Amino acid sequence: MFTDFALLFAIAVVWVAAGLVAEGLPRLRTAGPLRRRSGLLFVLVVSGLAGLAGVLLAGAVEAEPTLADRTAVGLALPAVPAVVVALITVRRVRALRVRAGAFATAPEAPAPPALRAAAAHPMIALPVQVTGLVMLPGLVTAAGLVPLTSPSMIGVVLTAAVLAVGTIGVRHALRHSRLVERAITVRSRSSRAAGILHV
Where are the transmembrane segments (predicted)? Predict the structure, then answer.
């Protein structure tokens, strides 16, 4: 029981750490730290996916009750955003790291607004943070504090998850829009300045 809880806790910690790193990416104003943090985020996300997949696979192949059996609800919930992370977020984080790496010769140069807008894209932080958030029911179940297998508790968990996802998603969408607008404004000013110089 303790081993099961410790394993699930370790996986949850990885996802929460990845969510915190993703949250701070758009705040980085220079290319060097942005490249390093996106690399760290990539490692954390891949580790979290591997841990979650390993636990689910172990539950599928073991005949005796395992962690995946005892925490079915908690593991099924993060599986959905984890698939989004695997299909979309990993690719975006790799692309962000490559784009930030283009400024490796001047790591302290200010990160372009378009690069910060890309770092703030909702499909980078949102799936990662949601996966970490919905790991909590699995932790509660593995610890034996509250059984989440009853229909009423499942309804409560799903309702809370939907509200949390909506709140986090709106927040990230607003921040992304603000940074995109800033990037467009800077690009427009640069285009006008270039046009004046060529007159």
Answer: 6-26, 38-60, 72-90, 124-146, 152-174
> For residue range 3-38, what is the model confidence (pLDDT) as tens digits?
667 788 888 899 999 999 999 999 998 888 999 999
Cβ atoms of 7 and 67 within 8 Å: the answer is yes
Of 34, 117, 127, whose CA–CA distance to 86 is shortest? 127
Query: Is the distance from CB of 67 to CB of 94 less than 8 angstroms?
Result: no
Identity of the residue numbered 197: L
Query: φ, ψ for residue 110 (rounded to 5)?
Result: -60, 140
CB 132 within 8 A of CB 79: no
For 118, residues 6+ apart whose C-beta sits below 8 A from its C-beta are 92, 95, 96, 99
- Structural tokens at position 151: 């229909």
d(CA 35, CA 104): 8
CA atoms within 13 Å, Cβ hemisphere of 188: 6
Domains: count for the chain = 1
| Residues 102, 77: Cα–Cα separation, whole Å | 37
Mean pLDDT of 129-155: 74
What DSSP letter does each residue of 79-128 carry, written as one string?
A: HHHHHHIIIIIHHHHHHHHHHHHTTTTSTTSBPPHHHHHHHT-HHHHHHH
Q: In terms of residue numbers, what domain contains 77? A: 2-198
pTM of the model: 0.81
Of 86, 8, 76, 75, nearest to 42 (Cα)? 86
